[in-house]
Design brief:
iron, alpha+beta, iron ion binding, three-stranded antiparallel sheet, oxidoreductase activity, acting on paired donors, with incorporation or reduction of molecular oxygen, Cyt_P450_CS, about 425 residues, monooxygenase, about 50% helix, Cytochrome p450, binds protoporphyrin IX containing FE
């Protein structure tokens, strides 16, 4: 369980609509039918709260930001930041995304074609650059290496926190590497607090997400957010947005390598469109097939493979009642691999998302970004970013994975390639390409 939570799911989640189990002494209801998911996440959204297991993993680092809060506190924060994720705001970030992709390209051009590296780590750096640009305009005083290391260290301790919570160990009992995790959380928070302090001292509020948080007022009391709440949210956006997007890119690049005919179509599309991300950010919308590839990649390898909630009152579902206090799991990874929803479910086929069939598909059969009121606020940002990065790098570089078959996916809150994604890289058209 510490290694990967998907390994303890019952097999029935890949075929049945509703599976009730006693997992480690708790009633856990897995919901994998699109109609029932809709009923739960939309019609009974008011009966769902954050679940203790996930809270134990996230709250020590993220405090009570938008991801970890419920009720009025969540609503206020969601309303406050929503406008920063409007399509026009995302479009304004396209040149910065392209700049981050260009820095990645520079990194890659310095690499020897014989020296393997972990593509996931590399993509995390690219995604971190982009999310920092969106949040804090890439504050130049931040030590990005140290910050990245602290985040990674903290994430490395979260499965212990979740496993302890699942077996009912109280939160005051220390788990392995507890102290290291606590130090890493404190270091990440201190780095963000320093950015907030620098911005306050500068006297310029700014137009990035930090600027919006600084300017936000409670609509009822007019009170601004205090610094701790701002730090909670900055870290929340970084935590929710950087590893997930990096994973989407990592799995997609691996799938493209394994399916040269799909890669050819993507390269052809990019060649025809000749995207100019600086002069014409709207060109992202013309990468139609590349977008289909990303969507299909996130079907097979959804970066966030599980949504968990606790019911706060009895919820009628499919002729039965889910009791108050139950743990409700929506195993997105399994939902996306159900044969009855996805014929030839294990096959990578981006044409599933071609405009015709995709339009007919049930909304709740495909949920890489969740659904209902708590749907991912960064979905548009993530898709745009991934398209810009792919279209900027693919035409120049060819990737060679070290392992013949893709690594096993393992769940550590997110869906990671077990052991990383070791690759070498060569310029297209070179003798190594
Ligand atoms: C491919 C990339 C991404 C994936 C697959 C993804 C997936 C998800 C999913 C499944 C949820 C719902 C979780 C739940 O219901 O419990 C979620 C929520 C969230 N995501 Fe994303 N996400 C991605 C990128 C981003 C980015 C780039 C940002 C921001 C910069 C972001 C910020 C958030 C936030 C703040 C929430 C919580 C929303 C709320 O509770 O109101 N995500 N994400």
């Amino acid at each position: 369980m510490v290694r990967s939570l998907i390994d303890v799911w019952p097999d029935a989640v890949y075929s049945k609509a509703l599976v009730e189990t006693r997992l480690l002494g708790r009633t856990t209801v897995f919901v994998t039918d699109p109609r029932l998911i809709r009923t739960l996440l939309v019609d009974h959204a008011d009966a769902l709260a954050r679940e203790e297991v996930a809270q134990r993993a996230l709250v020590p680092a993220l405090g009570n930001g938008i991801l970890t809060s419920d009720g009025a506190a969540w609503r206020l924060q969601r309303r406050t930041v929503a406008s920063a994720f409007r399509p026009d705001c995302i479009r304004a970030l396209v040149p910065r995304m392209h700049e981050a992709a260009r820095r990645t390209s520079e990194r890659w051009s310095r690499r020897s074609p014989h020296e393997p590296f972990d593509l996931l780590k590399d993509m995390m750096r690219t995604a971190l650059d982009i999310v920092l640009a969106a949040l804090v305009s890439g504050d130049s005083a931040l030590d990005v290496d140290a910050f990245e290391q602290a985040l990674e260290t903290y994430i490395g301790t979260t499965n212990w926190k979740m496993a302890y919570a699942m077996v009912g160990v109280p939160s005051w009992v220390p788990h392995p590497r507890q102290g290291t995790g606590a130090e890493a959380a404190a270091a990440s928070r201190a780095a963000m607090a320093a950015i907030v302090a620098r911005r306050r001292t500068s006297g310029v509020q700014g137009t990035d997400l930090l600027g919006m948080l600084l300017g936000a007022r409670d609509p009822e009391t007019g009170t601004p957010m205090d610094d701790a709440a701002i730090v909670d949210n900055l870290l929340t956006f970084i935590a929710a947005g950087h590893e997930t997007t990096a994973l989407a890119l990592t799995w997609t690049l691996r799938l493209l390598h394994d399916h040269p005919e799909v890669e050819r179509r993507v390269l052809d599309e990019i060649e025809v469109i000749r995207p100019d991300f600086t002069g014409d950010p709207a060109c992202v919308d013309r990468l139609v097939y590349t977008r289909q590839v990303l969507m299909e990649s996130m079907r097979l390898f959804p970066p966030a493979p599980l949504i968990v909630r606790r019911t706060t009152r009895p919820v009628p579902l499919d002729g039965t009642t889910v009791q108050a206090g139950s743990s409700v799991h929506i195993p997105i990874y399994a939902l996306h691999r159900q044969e009855r929803l996805w014929p030839r479910a294990q096959t990578f086929d981006p044409d599933r998302f071609a405009p015709g069939p995709a339009a007919e598909r049930e909304r709740f059969a495909y949920m890489p970004f969740g659904a209902g009121p708590r749907v991912c606020i960064g979905a548009g940002l993530a898709m745009t970013e991934a398209l810009v990065v792919l279209a900027s790098l693919l035409p120049s570089y060819r990737l060679r994975p070290r392992q013949a078959t893709p690594p096993r996916p393992e769940m550590r809150i997110t869906l990671r390639p077990a052991g990383g994604m070791s690759v070498t890289i060569a310029r297209r058209g070179s003798s190594h390409g």
